[in-house]
């Protein structure tokens, strides 16, 4: 499968994507745990059907030490016993933040309070921006049908 667009070949697309990817790397500087970042990025990408992002974040998480069991259970995290309460709160926020069109109220107060029990304001800010960022990147990749499978961990660092 070939991508419909090569964003980096277009002058405007290349400039925007370069800045967008730089913004994405900024999350690594936050105090939001790396494992949480990768689990959230993976779950948002699963929901949106972004194969290239599922590929990337599965491999990045594995390279950071994430176990195959946890990676395989992200899609069924509610029924899985391998996630911490903090990770479960982040995944709940990620799901509601991704599925805003499915629910009239967006992220509910209960989900927000659950996340706020486990993360400070800086971490919550990083989490909210990460969910929004992943949704934007997922849409760019899904629309252009970016192919998956060839990503190497650390490729964009």
Automatic annotation (TrEMBL):
Coiled-coil features, chain-numbered ranges: none
Entries under SUPFAM superfamilies matching the protein: AhpD-like (SSF69118)
All copies of domain Carboxymuconolactone decarboxylase-like, residue ranges: 24-96
NCBIfam families per UniProt: ahpD_dom
Protein's recorded name: Carboxymuconolactone decarboxylase family protein
Source organism: Streptomyces glaucosporus
The organism's taxonomic lineage, starting at the top: Bacteria, Bacillati, Actinomycetota, Actinomycetes, Kitasatosporales
């Amino acid at each position: 499968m070939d991508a419909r667009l090569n964003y980096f070949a277009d002058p405007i697309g290349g400039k925007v994507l370069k800045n967008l990817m730089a913004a994405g790397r900024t999350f690594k500087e936050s105090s939001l745990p790396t494992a949480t970042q990768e689990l959230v990025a993976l779950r948002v990408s699963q929901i949106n059907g972004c194969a290239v992002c599922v590929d990337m974040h599965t491999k990045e998480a594995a390279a950071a030490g994430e176990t195959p069991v946890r990676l395989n259970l992200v899609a069924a995290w509610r029924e899985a016993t391998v996630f911490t309460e903090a990770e479960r709160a982040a995944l709940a926020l990620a799901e509601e933040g991704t599925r805003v069109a499915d629910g009239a109220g967006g992220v509910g107060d209960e989900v927000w309070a659950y996340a706020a029990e486990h993360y400070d304001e800086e971490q919550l800010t990083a989490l909210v921006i990460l969910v929004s960022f992943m949704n934007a990147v997922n849409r760019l990749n899904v629309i252009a049908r970016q192919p998956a499978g060839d990503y190497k961990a650390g490729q964009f660092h």
